[in-house]
């Protein structure tokens, strides 16, 4: 195959402009810009989306909710295995004098509900933000 024939075959593979039969510099520039746009739309846009204020607030609330639920789970585990308490006594029993009561009479059920409410609010925030993004 001759050099000019190879060049013509490559031009036809480059998707020429429908108006012109020749592959112009504008087609090459447009193709280069589209490649750069695809390349930049990967990790950078994902990072920008992840660092949005809504996602950071959701991440913080999720972390607080998960830590609270893990703490309550650990308390359950210790009370059931070590002390042999009943679940109802763990949830609704008095914890006066322990670190968990905070001196205001809070019970384990309050912490469990707060952790669940935080996780529920995070899921609501993320679903709502996703619906807004889809509508735009």
Structure description:
With 136 residues, this protein is an all-alpha fold. It has 2 domains: 3-41, no CATH class; 47-135. Helix content is 74%, strand content 0%. It is built from 6 helices and no strands. Helix 4 (53-83) packs antiparallel against helix 6.
The count of DSSP E runs of length 2 or more, i.e. the number of strands, is 0
Measured between the Cα atoms of the first and last residue, the distance is: 52 Å
Individual helix count? 6
Which class do the helix and strand fractions yield?
mainly alpha
- Strand percent estimate: under 5%
How would you sum up the global shape? rod-shaped
Oligomer: single chain
Q: How many distinct folded domains?
A: 2
Order of helices and strands: HHHHHH
How confident is the prediction overall: mean pLDDT?
77
Largest sheet: none
CA-atom Rg in angstroms: 30 Å
Share in helix: over 70%
Low-confidence stretches: none
What labels would you give this structure?
about 140 residues; mainly alpha; 2 domains; rod-shaped
Summarize the structure.
The chain is an all-alpha fold and about 140 residues long. The protein is built from 6 helices and no strands. The chain folds into 2 domains: about 5-40, no CATH class; about 45-135.
Note the topology.
Layout: H1 3-13, H2 25-40, H3 43-50, H4 53-83, H5 87-92, H6 108-135
Helix pairs in contact: 4-6
């Amino acid at each position: 195959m001759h050099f000019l024939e190879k060049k013509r075959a490559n031009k036809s593979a480059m998707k020429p402009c429908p108006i012109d039969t020749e592959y112009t510099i504008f087609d090459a520039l447009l193709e280069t810009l589209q490649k750069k746009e695809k390349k930049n739309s990967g990790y950078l846009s994902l990072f920008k989306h992840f660092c949005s204020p809504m996602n950071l607030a959701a991440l913080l609330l999720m972390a607080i909710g998960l830590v609270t639920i893990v703490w309550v789970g650990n308390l359950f585990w210790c009370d059931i295995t070590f002390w042999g308490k009943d679940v109802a006594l763990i949830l609704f029993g008095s914890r006066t004098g322990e670190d968990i009561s905070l001196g205001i009479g809070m019970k384990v059920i309050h912490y469990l509900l707060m952790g669940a409410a935080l996780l529920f609010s995070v899921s609501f925030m993320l679903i709502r933000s996703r619906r807004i993004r889809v509508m735009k």
